[in-house]
Every structure is written in C-alpha cells, then in structure tokens.
Amino acid sequence: MRFARISLVRLLLVSLSFAMAVPAARAEGRIRIAEQFGIVYLLLNVVRDQQLIEQEGRKLGVDVKVDWARLSGGAAINDALLSGAIDIAGAGVGPLITVWDRTYGRQNVRGVASLGSLPYYLVSNNPKIRTIADFTDKDRIALPAVGVSVQSRVLQYAAARQWGDGAFDRLDKWTQTMAHPDAAAAIIAGGTEITGHFGTPPFQEQELAANPNAHIVLDSYDVLGGPSSATVLYTTEKFRNENPKTYRAFVLALARAADFVKRQPEAAADTYLRVNQSKTDKKLLVSIITDPKVNFSIAPQNTLGLAQFMQRVGAVRHKANSWKDYFFDDPALGQGS
C-alpha cells in the first residue's frame, strides 16, 4: 500500500506540473514522455541524452519541446496517459493490452514502438523455491504493478500453463506492488517476506550477483515461447493525429537510438549511467546490452501470444488477431509480431 500511495503522489505531482506548464489547447511541438526504471528504457535514455527528438523535429520543421517524467508501474503509467498528464507511456506489453482494451472505440490507445526484447527473470532468495509451485503463504513476489504489469501477466500465463487457464490468477494473492530498486534491495538483503522479485535488467542481474542464494525461478522467454518485447511505448489516437510531425520525430529518434545502442554498446552503457545517475557496474550493463538474448529493436516481437492469453482468461474483452490490432501502423516498425 505504501508503494501504491507513492505512485499516486507521483502521478498527482506529474499531472500538476504538466497542467501548470501546458495550456489546455496547445500547438504541435510538445511531447510529454513517461518512463520507468531499468535498462529496458535505454533507448529513451539515448533519445534524451542526445536530444534526438529535437533534432528530428527540426528536420521536419517543428521545434519540439520534450518533457520527461518517471513513474513506477503500468497502472500509474496508464492513469497518467488517460488523465492527459502525459502523451507517451512507457510500460510493459501487459499494460498496453489492458489500456488498448479499455479505450477501444474511444481514446483508442495503441502501441508506438517496442523498446527491445529482453528476458525478465523471476528471482528468489529462498533456496526452497525452485519453481512457481514452491511459493507458499509465507512468500511475497514483488513486481511493478499487481495484475497489470507485464511481469504480473507473464506470471499469470505461467500459472495457467502449470495448473490450467482456470487457475491463471493462483499466484496473484502472493504478489505485491513494489518499485524495482526497492524490490532488488529486499532480495539482496534478505530477511523480509519478499522472497521473489519478477524484475527487469539490470536489477535482476544485480540480485543474482550480490546474493548467493538468489536464483532464477522463471524466465519470461520460456513462458512466452522465445524472445519477446517486454517494454513498449504507446499513446492515444488523438495525440498521434493532432501531432503528426512530433510523432514522426519521436519514432525516427527511437530508430536512431536503437542503431546507436547496437553499434556502440559501451557508449550506450555510459549514457544509462549518466542519465539515471546510476552507480551500476558498467561491465554488467555492457554484458546485458551485448547479450545474444537481448535485441534493442523498435519493432515489436512475439507479443500476440500474451495478448490472446489475456483475452482468453477474461483479463480483457477484445481479442487481438494480429499485433497490428494494438499497434499503430507505421513502416518504421517493419515486420513485427
């Protein structure tokens, strides 16, 4: 509950600051972007550090002003987007599918691009927990947003595979909303009811390196059947239609950032450290960026299975037949899935 209150306070502060800075009716040339924690947001870190949106905007004849905010959890991100506090939301595929379904036929929220495919690990510091079937009432699994985040949805997907679709939410009662830095600290220190953390890089790698009891219980790639986009960006149809040049500048900036990360992983790691004012070991960051399982691409990858699972168990009403149902059509995304 404490972390939920913190997220709500952050959302209110973000809404207030943007409301004071931005008039109700504004001309094209301003974009408000919300991100979360972890190296999965590396492309946005590069975009911000190199001012790529501003550069691409000038090429299109628009002087773009960019505002950045950081929230924790897909629920807070979705609330900020629907309240008009932000224009671009950064969260997992689960929150995207949730808000796409919720706004179907109204605000029509859809995906803008992927931020890359990275495996998410459910890490436990309890030696007795080797599979998801080993969690008990004494355990709590930290994740960014109970019932909404991509980690929560992947855990439900894993539960459905273990016990059947009717028991997809079997583990929900043991999940707890917590920001990744706090959850990682709990796993590393031990001695609390938090015995599991379904996290994101680099926090999961830090846990595995710092606590000898920490080990991987679940790999998101195993659940989803291979590499898949974990974190994505999305917006409303209204923003996209009313700000075509700003939107185009944003997508082009993302594509440039993806190319930069692939060509210069060490410089990309430096960017992460600088933008986030992080003390994470640079070698660890470079190892994540260059991991063969990691692909920093803006084209969504292997997202449809999770979307269809969510509809099958009643988490959302609308069934997606293609990834293009919940992503805006854009040639820059290429052959997504």
From TrEMBL:
UniProt xrefs under Pfam families: NMT1_2 (PF13379)
Signal peptide positions (record): 1-21
Signal is among the record's keywords: yes
Swiss-Prot/TrEMBL keywords: Signal
Alphabetical list of PANTHER family matching this protein: ABC TRANSPORTER SUBSTRATE-BINDING PROTEIN (PTHR30024:SF2), ALIPHATIC SULFONATES-BINDING PROTEIN-RELATED (PTHR30024)
Name under which the protein is recorded: Nitrate ABC transporter substrate-binding protein
Lineage: Bacteria, Pseudomonadati, Pseudomonadota, Betaproteobacteria, Burkholderiales
